[in-house]
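Deliverable D4.2, example record:
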Amino acid sequence: MIIPNQKALFSIPDDITYLNCANMSPLMTAVEKAGVQAISERRRPWTIGADQWFEPAEELRSLFAGLIGADKDHVALIPSVSYGIAIAKNNIKLSSSQKIVVLDQEYPSNMYAWRELSAESGAAMVTVKREGDESWTEAVLRAIDTSTGLVAISNCHWTDGSLIQLERVSRRVKEVNARLVIDASQSLGAYPLDVGKIQPDFLVTVGYKWLMGPYNLAYLYADPQYLQDGRPIEFSWMVKAGSDDFTRLVDYTEAYKPGARRFDAGEFSSFIHIPMATAALAQIAAWGVGSIQETLSGLTDSIATRASALGLMAPGREGRVGHMIGIRFAGDMIDRVREKLVENNIYISFRGSSMRIAPHLYNDERDVERLLGVLKYAR
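Output generated by the structure prediction step:
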């Protein structure tokens, strides 16, 4: 279903064309209001009961679980992707005879931990690069063999939206008895994803991009095999069994709360961030991720068609997600484009060799027209 333009739900001036959700989403006015209300309530700590330390987080956990087809017991609330990847590293054991498969030019948060694991275990790092016209999916599958112990990838490449078909990769990962870790930061919330079909060991994502929430709140999904004996990276009192009874906190226990809650970060119940994130995920659920993808695909398809007509390098629809597209330039054109974008209040990121265009429901064909007008002039 195509969703009508939703710009009225945001505070974006008419002279601004923001095509940079892959960097950071604008806050919806409802999310902003939830934050302001939360700050107001935080001024009066005597009104905050013990239930407010845990119950709002459970509502958010449920909303996120619904987006990925999971049970909320499999979801942890964390501050960042790097935190979640560190949890994954802490629970994956490799030997020196195994390999770690990662993407070329992967985002650092899904790279540094695996370099550490490689150094500690002796497992070799294998950086996947595409050859010729092959897709990222084909390149990743080519890199996986019986010596592979871990595949750590994204749903789409963060620089240009190139698609990686996770279900195909997962089947191959299972065949060689390896582990699969996914950074879904550039897809989750705008591209349908079902962990029941993909079956990753861990999936992590930020909350401030396509999930449209506040900075410093992210999410982790953990496979059931890690829920009984998984090792967290910190030891917060809040994740321990019985911690909601404040009168018994000094009755120390080794037992954790059920499920992935053992991986929750300390102070996960942020009284300001949780209400904001809840408002954001509730709206995304109301729109429907499939409908978001369908709607944004229309915009990026239009950009691709018109950019190609200008002689620019735009990827075909079959090789990328629908909510993001990378346009490449020849020669020094990129410098002229940067200058003209700034002059015309058009906000886009440049990542790697691509101009990364990432619209959302606050954009429409008028924004596409403004963008292509700049590209035509700067060509």
